[in-house]
Design brief:
The chain has no helices and eight strands. By secondary structure, it is mainly beta. The strands form two sheets. Strands 1, 3, 4, 6, 7 and 8 form a six-stranded mixed β-sheet that branches. It has a two-stranded antiparallel ribbon with strand order 2-5. The mean pLDDT is 96.
């Protein structure tokens, strides 16, 4: 995804077999995944949220389920 600084970037997805689970958005920083301060709640197997960042260049995000200790695929967001 290519975005401008502080442009809204939507994250949507499915989480099969789960409902009312709280997911965390994380960004990869200095060699580890850190909470980004954005959450999404799974409703009927789907979730949606968004992020906004001003950090230029390539940013790596994921959606993480802390209860299951499981993360999504990496979502690349390049801020130009």
């Amino acid at each position: 995804v290519l975005a401008r600084p502080m442009e809204r970037v939507n994250f949507t997805g499915t989480y099969k077999g789960e409902d009312n689970i709280q997911l965390e958005v994380q960004r990869y920083e200095t060699g580890e995944w850190k909470d980004f301060g954005v959450q999404a709640t799974v409703r009927v197997g789907t979730f949606e949220t968004y992020i906004m960042t001003g950090r230029s260049g390539e940013n790596r995000f994921r959606v993480y389920d802390p209860e299951a200790d499981q993360g999504s695929n990496v979502i690349l967001v390049t801020i130009d």
